[in-house]
């Protein structure tokens, strides 16, 4: 178990205890007394139970990583008090109760990683417009229902959006293509319907980082096939199949590509992940914080 005495280290700046096999609940004293803490990483342990409501006392926190545990319950409202937080990683736990409205208070958040939790709830009930600095949003396999709200298109700095393996429905809004920084979009394994109305330029920009298969009632306009940029695993719209305008060899070549493309992110944010594109940004953030700690 994590010793409650850690909460007496009131001037502690960084606490990293990842992968140590700790079990039991997170001590209330740990969350409530360390107001100067900048980094808290308790990932890859066996921690269980709910998050203490006292987490709101970690007002200086920049990074909170509790991924890969068995934590459960609703996300406490105190998380909304973490106005300096840039990274929230709660992946691979058992959190439920939907997206707490209090998370809208995390105005500095850049990376919100909540995948593989039975959160449930709807995207429509959350004020996405408040998270103007968000660059990475991973909500895959979280039991979400309803439609994708237009408010997500207000996230002008968003680069990575994963909504795959949920119960989302309705049309996929073409407004997602207006996100100027978006470089990865994963929508597979939902109940989306209608026609994908993204332009040829959008598919070129996404490349292999767009996935929307396993949406049986979703289709695409065959015009995008003129350059071979085809959404893998999605059928052409039926009203166009009578007048094919594509090269069958091109379709076969593209369709034979990987249909197992996944939104999975690195299990950790160590230095080895610099080869994975923009994850280097997160590593750089960690380095900046470490340098600040040395100078303090």
TrEMBL record:
<dbReference type="InterPro" id="IPR001611">
    <property type="entry name" value="Leu-rich_rpt"/>
</dbReference>
<dbReference type="GO" id="GO:0016301">
    <property type="term" value="F:kinase activity"/>
</dbReference>
<dbReference type="InterPro" id="IPR032675">
    <property type="entry name" value="LRR_dom_sf"/>
</dbReference>
<dbReference type="InterPro" id="IPR052941">
    <property type="entry name" value="StomDev_PlantInt_Reg"/>
</dbReference>
<keyword id="KW-0677">Repeat</keyword>
<keyword id="KW-0675">Receptor</keyword>
<dbReference type="Pfam" id="PF00560">
    <property type="entry name" value="LRR_1"/>
</dbReference>
<keyword id="KW-0325">Glycoprotein</keyword>
<keyword id="KW-0732">Signal</keyword>
<keyword id="KW-0433">Leucine-rich repeat</keyword>
<dbReference type="GO" id="GO:0051606">
    <property type="term" value="P:detection of stimulus"/>
</dbReference>
<keyword id="KW-0472">Membrane</keyword>
<dbReference type="InterPro" id="IPR003591">
    <property type="entry name" value="Leu-rich_rpt_typical-subtyp"/>
</dbReference>
<dbReference type="GO" id="GO:0005886">
    <property type="term" value="C:plasma membrane"/>
</dbReference>
<keyword id="KW-0812">Transmembrane</keyword>
<keyword id="KW-0808">Transferase</keyword>
<keyword id="KW-0418">Kinase</keyword>
<keyword id="KW-1003">Cell membrane</keyword>
<dbReference type="Pfam" id="PF13855">
    <property type="entry name" value="LRR_8"/>
</dbReference>
<protein>
    <submittedName>
        <fullName>Putative Leucine-rich repeat receptor-like protein kinase PEPR2</fullName>
    </submittedName>
</protein>
<keyword id="KW-1133">Transmembrane helix</keyword>
């Amino acid at each position: 178990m994590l010793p409650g005495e850690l909460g007496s280290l009131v001037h502690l700046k960084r606490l990293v205890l990842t992968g140590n096999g700790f079990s039991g609940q997170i001590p209330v004293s740990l969350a409530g007394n360390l107001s100067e803490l900048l980094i808290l990483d308790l990932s890859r342990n066996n921690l269980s139970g709910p998050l203490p409501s006292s987490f709101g006392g970690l007002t200086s926190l920049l990074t909170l990583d509790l991924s890969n545990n068995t934590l459960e319950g609703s996300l406490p409202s105190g998380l909304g008090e973490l106005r300096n937080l840039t990274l929230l990683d709660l992946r691979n736990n058992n959190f439920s109760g939907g997206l707490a409205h209090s998370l809208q208070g995390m105005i500095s958040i850049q990376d919100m990683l909540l995948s593989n939790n039975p959160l449930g709830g709807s995207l429509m009930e959350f004020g996405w417009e408040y998270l103007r600095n968000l660059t990475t949003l991973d909500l895959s396999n979280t039991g979400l229902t309803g439609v994708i709200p237009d408010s997500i298109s207000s996230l002008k700095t968003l680069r990575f959006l994963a909504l795959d393996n949920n119960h989302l429905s309705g049309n996929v809004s073409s407004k997602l293509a207006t996100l100027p920084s978006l470089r990865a979009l994963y929508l597979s394994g939902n109940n989306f319907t209608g026609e994908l109305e993204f332009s040829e330029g959008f598919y070129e920009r996404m490349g292999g980082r767009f996935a929307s298969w396993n949406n049986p009632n979703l289709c695409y306009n065959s015009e995008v096939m003129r350059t071979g940029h085809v959404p893998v695993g999605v059928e052409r719209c039926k009203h166009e199949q009578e007048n094919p305008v594509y090269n069958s060899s091109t379709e076969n070549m593209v369709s034979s590509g990987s249909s197992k493309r996944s939104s999975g992110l690195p299990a950790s944010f160590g230095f080895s992940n610099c080869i994975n594109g923009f994850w280097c940004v997160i590593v750089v953030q960690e380095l900046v914080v470490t340098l600040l700690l040395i100078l303090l």
